[in-house]
Predict the 3D structure of the following.
Amino acid sequence: RQVASQCRLLQSSSGRPSSPQLPQLPDEPISLQDAPGGLFQLPPGDPFPERVTVAWLSVVALAFALVCDPQENLSLAEITLRRLAPRLLTSLRLLGPGADVLLRPDAADVLLDRLLPHGQMLFLNEHFLQAVDREM
């Protein structure tokens, strides 16, 4: 909910209207260099026992979020999210004319296992990412 609120706030402050319809996903890869994103903190409580930082990224009409422990490198989290999001986009299956989207769990599991093994962020280079893309 907080990621959705952040996205709507950013859209309204930039003057872009928010659309309840999910636009058609493009056929070619999306550049996420200028995709809106940010960070916010969640206080201790439900669902996390300690304060966590959430890195988020808005792509097309979807938002991706990566929950980070306090000691994690937030710059690396943003880079990881920007490299993970386009690969997850290729794993989307649109379910209907609304905002109904489903990730293919098998593809998402492989991506998360390779790019975030055991939940640990890696410094990812292009050769490694190309190998993951070929594997997928």
